[in-house]
Amino acid sequence: MSERLDELTSWDANWKGLRVVVAGLGLSGFSAADTLIELGAWSPSWTGARTR
Predict the structure, then answer these.
(1) For the segment 4-49, what is each residue's pLDDT rounded down to a tens digit?
(2) Contact 22, 33 (CB under 8 A)
(3) Pick the residue with more confidence: 51 or 27?
(4) Which distant-in-sequence residues (6+ apart) come within 8 Å of 1 by Cβ?
(5) Closest by alpha carbon to 19, among 47, 39, 49?
(6) Each residue of 1-27: b (16+ CB within 10 Å) or e?
(7) Which of 1 and 18 is assigned the larger pLDDT?
């Protein structure tokens, strides 16, 4: 796995199928999740807000 991480240094890297987690959806969290999804990574995200 660390070899794959070493290759993730730019937009042009192969992000497809990589599973990532973005915790929190402030401005930067939303931007990061959106970009990772567009690059092909799978990104579940949550805000931590409680629902009734």
Answers:
(1) 888 888 889 998 888 888 877 788 888 888 888 899 987 665 555 5
(2) yes
(3) 27
(4) none
(5) 39
(6) eeeeeeeeeeeeeebeebebebeebee
(7) 18
In this prediction, residue 17 carries a pLDDT of 84
Phi, psi (rounded to 5 degrees) for 5: -65, -35
Q: What is the 3-state secondary structure (H, E, C) of 1-52?
A: CHHHHHHCCCCCCCCCCCECCEECCCHHHHHHHHHHHHCCCECCEECCCCCC
45 phi, psi to nearest 5 deg: -140, 155
Cα separations in angstroms, 49 against 8, 24, 30, 40? 31, 9, 15, 26
